TrEMBL record:
Superkingdom of this protein's organism: Eukaryota
Protein name from the UniProt record: Retrovirus-related Pol polyprotein from transposon TNT 1-94
Transmembrane domains' residue ranges: 112-131
Keywords in alphabetical order: Membrane, Transmembrane, Transmembrane helix
Taxonomic source organism: Acer saccharum (Sugar maple)
Length: 145
């Protein structure tokens, strides 16, 4: 490839990266003209496992709330994105904590759903406990002579 083709390819790659960024992310890299430097800047800013990034994402997770009018599917996708970003920073949450955070992020109009899920979970655990405690053992046959 000659220099002109590399410049065209570099410009297209920079444009593609910028198209996939949010507005507030674009402003920090608007003047970058080389893909390698642009990518390195983004990587240093967003992929470092710094305390600031970890605290920012945790704050975002703990303050995450349902926006009225948004579909539940989009709400769950946004929630999963925050969790994936935290997972990239080696932050792990138990399944129960994730479920509790998601349920608490829902609007009051979904209160019946959270009650059902909580009660359903309690009833399910109670049923498992009862089943474990009352395991039926097969009876031995007595041979009669």
């Amino acid at each position: 490839m000659d220099d002109k083709e590399w410049e065209t390819l570099n410009r297209q790659a920079c444009g593609t990266i910028r198209l996939n960024l949010a507005k507030d992310q674009k402003y920090t890299i608007m003047k970058e003209k080389f893909v390698k430097k642009l990518w390195k800047t983004l990587e240093d800013k967003y992929m470092t496992k710094s305390l600031e990034n970890r605290l920012y994402l945790k704050k975002k997770l703990f303050r995450f709330t349902y926006v009225p009018g948004m579909s539940i599917n989009n709400h769950i996708n946004m929630f999963n994105k925050i969790l994936a970003d935290l997972l990239n920073l080696d932050e792990h949450f138990s399944e129960e904590d994730k479920a509790l955070l998601l349920i608490n992020s829902l609007h009051d109009e979904y209160d019946h759903l959270s009650t059902t899920l909580f009660m359903g979970r309690i009833i399910f655990l109670l049923m498992l406990y009862v089943l474990r405690c009352t395991t039926v053992k097969p009876r031995k046959r007595i041979k009669r002579s």
